[in-house]
Amino acid sequence: MSSESTGLVDIQINGGFGHDFTEDPVSIWLVGERLAEFGVEAFLPTIISSPPGTVEKALAVLKQGPPADYRGARPLGLHVEGPMLAPSRRGTHPEQYLRSPSLEVIDGWTAAAGVLMVTLAPELPGARSVVEALLAEGVVVALGHSAATYEEATAAFSWGITHVTHMFNAMPPLDHRAPGPIGALLSQERVTAGLIVDGIHVHPATVAAAWRLLGPERMVLVSDAMAAAGLGDGSFSIGTIPVSVEEGRVLNSDGRLAGSSLLLDQAVRNLVTFTGCTESEAIGAASTNPLTVLGKHPNRARR
């Protein structure tokens, strides 16, 4: 990918156009073909908490490569979201697939093998050794689906965690007496944050505040899209979890948000509308910034 490219890069996408990566990793190529129609040049297929072996199946799909006539967005590697998540902040991740942090869980998860990012809850016992092992293998580690306190999140950033998955969602809110992971993130200078800018997951006014606090180099637009993206309202699934889409809201059986039906080009337009930023800044938040998170932008390194 050229440093001059303005192609969008989605580092958190669970599927789209009727397909779910966790349930059917082969659909990575089908979704990638369609993503290119919406300006997405590269993406991280995201695998949520699932039975052992699911990540390996997805890696095998990437290793085999695309069909001969493939002209779609390029999967850079996997984003594994889970299964080492806080049960109280699991969202729609199936509780039966959550696991405690251990080196066994991440066996074979290396950047060389194709795992580029892992989201976990760093406050869980054993998390530090897992974070350090992943970092040693070139994997970007993100805080997410976490109940961490300010102190626990700050410690995790000192270990080398450099990103926060879907800021504000699936974590304690920012409180004036208990700043939590959001307060810890805002106290850092190098930690980036993904945001789902659909106007549903995060209020537009909160997006605008986050933009002012993070600045144009630390906010990363993500879709967190699931199978419904690109299809409109209806019934779909995330992994094995049934969800319904009503007026763009993706809801599980408990009525909680469960991923989005957003595509990244719309997130760019929304960011301009919500914050008043320039189109160039919004595109950077969805292209240059995600590449920087992954250490893949040729002209920008992580601080």
How would you sum up this structure, described in words?
The chain is built from nine helices and 14 strands. It has about 300 residues and is of the alpha/beta class. Strands 1, 4, 5, 6, 7, 8, 9, 10 and 11 form a nine-stranded parallel sheet that branches. A three-stranded antiparallel sheet has the order 12-13-14, with no helix packed on it. β7, α3 (about 125-135) and β8 form a beta-alpha-beta unit. α4 (about 150-160) packs across α5 and α7 packs across α8. The two termini are about 20 Å apart. The model has no long low-confidence stretch (mean pLDDT about 95).
Which tags fit this structure?
single chain; 303 residues; alpha/beta; TIM Barrel; 9-stranded parallel sheet; 3-stranded antiparallel sheet; 9 helices
